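the two lines:
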Amino acid sequence: MYPANHKTVFVLDHTPYFGISTESPLEFDCLKTRGQNLIPLAPICKSLWTTSVESSMEYCRIVWDLFPTGKLVRFVVSDHAAHILNTWSASQQNLSHIMNGMAIIGVPPRTHQPGVDFSVIHGLRVAIEALTESSEIQHEKRTSLTENATKLLNSGRVICITSARDDINMKSLENIFLNQLTQQNKIALTSDHLIPVHHCHLVILNIFPNNIESQVTSQSPREVSPLLTMEVHSMKAPALHSKLSHLILSHYDLASTTVTGIPMKEEQNASSSANYDVEIFHSSAAHSAILKGNPQDSALIKTFRRFEEGSEYETVTLKWCTPRGCSACEMQNCTAMHRITPVDVNSRPSSCLINFLLNGRSVMLEMARKSGGKTISHLLAAHGGEIFIHTLSTARSVLEDPPSISEGCGGRVTDYRITDFGTLMRNNVLVPLKKNSSDEGEGPAAKMRSRLERHTKYWPITISNTLMFNLKQLIDPLPELMVKDDLTKEEIVQCKQIIFALLQLEAKHEPLPLPSIGGGRGGKGGVRREEHYRLLWGELETFLKGHANNSAAHVEVLNCLLEVRNKDDKDKVELDQALRELDGLGKEDITARASVIRATTDSPMSPPPCTSVSLGKQLHKGSLYTPKSLLDIWLQRSAPKERKPEFHGRIQSDGPKAKLYPNLKEPGREPREPILEA
Amino acid sequence: MPTVIALDVSLSMRRPVLGVLGTDSVQTEQLTRHHLAVQGINALLHYLQTNSKLEFVSLVVFSSLYEVICPFTRDYDSIRAKLQNIEECDKTCIETALHGVNNVIMAEWGNTTACQVILVTDGNPGVGTMSLGDSLNSLNVKRDNNPFPLPFPYPGKLSIVCIASQQDPGLAIGLPLYQRLIELAGSDSIVLIPEGQLTKNSVTNCFQKLAEANYVSFQGYLKCGHLGSRIFLSPPPMPHTKKTDFEILAGLTVSKTIEICGFISVADVGSPSAISRHLVLPLPTEKTPSMQGISLEEESDTEDNGDDGKIPSFCVLLHGALKVENMAALCLLNTDWYGFIYSWADTKKKSNLMLTLLEPGTDIIPWLGNLSNLGPIDAAINKSGEIGFPVRPSEKRSYSQNAPSWIRQVGLQSDIQKILRHARKLPEKTQNFYKELNRLRRAALSMGFVELLEGLASIFERECTLLPPNLNPDCTIQMGHVAEMLRKPYSRELKNNITPVRTKFHHAE
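prediction for all of em together
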């Protein structure tokens, strides 16, 4: 709770001394490879100032890559006075803001001017003031009305890059800082908007050019007062970067992973590939599963120490696994995820790995076990332009040997409306919405909830419990339209047309075109035609009643159904009226197409459907799905006495289904079955 | 939840229980605390056998050392068999026991699986060094190699059962120490002492109580609009504690009604981290009127034949559709707490419905944005500029910004080489040349690296003298121009860009 890394202030020494060279010549003259007889250029060196700016920027780069929010860094530059580069506000917590500020600050003033007090003290004083200012989240917590509001502890860290004369000088710096901290806390206590600093961690980085021996000695962290812990690191300027990138590990509890064995094309020789390593930083929690997990394996996991300009730290080496298939497309058992950043951001191996990931591919990382085996322990993947390390579970699972869904409740039912539910899911896919502050009342989540309720108002879960959803060719798009929260004029007409078309079909004594799938409902043919219509009308009524309170338009559709049904029951003559209405509604009666086609293919001379057909189907089904009734058995017995000759095609076919026009699928011809289907 | 039963086998466990004789007169042997403990453990195993068959149990015995008698298993009878032949050892050492337990659990389940630790002892915390009192007193002394085993390095719950009567004088010393232990362990850990006289019955009741308190199954309702099913979660979710920089939210529990908020394709979900995973097992459920539909069979007695497998369940439908569509259902577990339900197959390709609990909160998966701001797709169409997943952060990370980094010399060298490569291909590469040049110049100015600008000017001047004769004369003109510009105060201003000099080779854009 209340970690020191929430607020960090960098104090950069911008006094004239920092304008001097680090005396560490750079190899910037890259013509050397081109030939020997070149005039060498005068060597260039970074100044102390450039070194401290780039190292502190690198520190921020890592912090903000890994923790885009919640870990705040401010910059104060100190020369004759303190210059504040940014505030705690989230909008100023980014590198480009700081870089712009640094460009405006420019190089340290060249010479001492008489009467001007150049000192890093100005900056330290302002840094303490900055720590007493609340960050956005601190302000929110302090002003919240919960009991925790008063318990808020304000911790922070000041990292000061300077160059002191000697240890005495450093001691006085310490005293001034502690004094100032105590003073500022007194001020903060009397103020409404400032919070006293409960604890401050002061890190002083004393740098000096390569050709100078410093009189300042390093000091390990020590509690100066309950308010202040202080440490001093003294080093040559070029070592500043590695010192800071070492310190950052403990400041933010980070760990290093070296991804090893990354295959990469050679620049010179594109046909071969060599293996490279890339080191990344991330929160140390990403390793806790493998380092704290299994004590045997964590002892065996290879952690190499890296030595770089005097500082050392551990890195866990994990092996690149060339991705097979799409590991991102399935739900991995991920126990932790953390953002990563490459340690060496612009190097070729780093950018190769980064681009590979940013392009949407993911990489599994493999951990070697002493036993000789290997385990996939992590997954690297980019999401929305940010790269994460996912820690995958390597331990035994308590879900070992689970039952299959088919062994449980409802597992042996085979006619679920899975395709329809898939459609419902696709219609209720979630997308990110920007919360509109002007939107009053329900947010997107609440809207989604009422939408799902609307979509499931009438939703039989098995095929054998519904007629209307099995008659899509007649009913569509009625169900789809009715689940909307409102209907347009055209949509109302469309719905009514569907009802009328159905009515027309019934009037023509057409059997419902039920598909022959599962359950027991289909196939009873002419025998149960009227019963089917009765059930369908009933079901439609339930469905429409369910949606009646969606809008007035929905009521209109329901009323239409109720009206035609009543008419139908009372007086058959009224049907003609309804049919005339239907004709008036529009010629483009797509939904009636099925019956129209049926009408054209049936010649007046067509015999009534052969009962043995439906019987055959019925028997076929009955043996599988339904117990036979006495009627079934009687019908079966009476079947051979059928007077009508069997359809010629069926005699030659294998089962009760006969293929029509078997010669039709000759090469070059378009299959016509769909047209003939009815 | 895997369980470790740690049984004290110190000599004090073999003390006879006063006033309690073996039930059968044939068995004249006096009952000891050890007998009662075994009896109690058997009662616990019996409870698991009937109520919680999927729990893994391991048996560890301890004195001044520990020994794994039975590794984790679901075969409770094998544990029972081992229980019969346990030999007594020396003295009680609870710290050793807990170290042993931690090793056993971490080796098997890692640091994220919630576990139960049941410590069975006699209320006698041991004497001398390595006694419990001694261990607890040295807590604050820094122990680098051997930290105290509590709190558990995994989500664990400690239950201490004392086979001692309430009046036992030893308890007066032991009990406060056990209280310390469970405080350290946290997570609703408890100390249990049999009620009343120390008898077979009271001990059995005590273990029964423990089992009922610790192995509560989770039964709830999975709701999707008007559809739904009663469900059973295995293993039951544990109360969760969320720690952030500014608050600790303890005791977060999953609501009994889990409501589906909508669907997202599994690829978009992208394996976020989960605090735990649970199988969602359907229970027989009355159909809601919305699911009922119509009955096409008059003789619909198939549903009453008592076969649960034949009664349609929403969970099976949901599982089928999630699997076919490769989607996951986002569901609300409690206020501001979400999870995902999806189809999961184990190594044997047995497919089932799985629920993963996300970290509590609404803004926990960066690429999905705030979960409470997810809504139907038609709402997005009305507003412009909405695109879908992934949600991108407002700022790019450093690795996708291509910002110069000169901490290592190579970085600086490659930036300079890039500019020189462009320079040799002038005038075609005029734009790239000036773009890279100004990028480098701006970076140098931000870092106060004016020495570089001077150095770069000298490089260009020398480069002019080295150009092969067949190169376009524009190279010389532009590089000379740049070298001159770099030395002027004009180029030391961030806002000023160096622009190409107009030549006859340079076609007007």
